[in-house]
Amino acid sequence: MMRAFSYSSARSGSLLAGIGLALVVETVALHLWLHVRHPFIAWGLTLASVGTLAWLVADYVAMGRGVVTVDADALRCVIGRRFNVTIVRGAVESVVRPGWKDIPESGTPAAADYLNLTKPAEPNVLITLASPTRVRLPGGISRNVRRLALHLDEPEDFVSALALPAQAS
Question: Cβ distance 112 to 124 under 8 Å?
């Protein structure tokens, strides 16, 4: 039986509005400054900014509709327009509600194998894998991770569903 877990509480409308406002102000200023001498560059930067703003809005909408699914075979994490990761159930070593000691500080050696899929939200679920798994990041970059963090709307139910043996799901 497949179970779906939403993560809409992980998105931040105020963060989107702040980034969007800064992007619009910078785009207008750069466009006006460059338009007289380098109109093609000005329009190129403006189009890039509009594309970025459209991606941010699409990601926000997708974060509101997206789900993480658990079934007998796999854990599927489709996180907004950022990540699409499928993990075989047998590769999950543990799943817990993390405490402050479980989440590594960004930029430290302890964070080398850690990825918060719902960043900037504070994670309320931590999945540890038996071996490193390759995760494709936005922009086509890939990284090997052993610990995945999520901020889910129903973390207790998710931990229970994933902790159950695959046959009982």
Answer: no
Q: Do 46 and 78 reside in the same domain of the chain?
A: no
Q: 51: domain range?
A: 11-65
Does residue 23 fall inside a structural domain? Answer: yes
Q: Same domain, yes or no, for 60 and 99?
A: no
Question: Measuring CA to CA, how many Å separate 7 from each of 12, 75, 112, 115, 125?
Answer: 11, 15, 24, 16, 11
Cα separation of 6 and 153, whole Å? 6
pLDDT tens digit string along 112-145? 999 999 999 999 999 999 999 999 888 888 999 9
- Residues 65-117: tens digit of each pLDDT: 999 999 989 999 999 999 999 999 999 999 999 998 899 988 899 899 999 99
Summarised one tens digit per residue, pLDDT across range 4-48 is 999 999 999 999 999 999 999 999 999 999 999 999 999 999 999
- Domains held by the chain: number: 2
Residues 59 and 71 in one domain: no
- ∠ CA 106-112-113, nearest 5°, is 115
Is residue 96 within 8 Å of residue 146, measured between CB atoms? Answer: no
Closest of 87, 121, 91 to residue 103, by C-alpha = 121
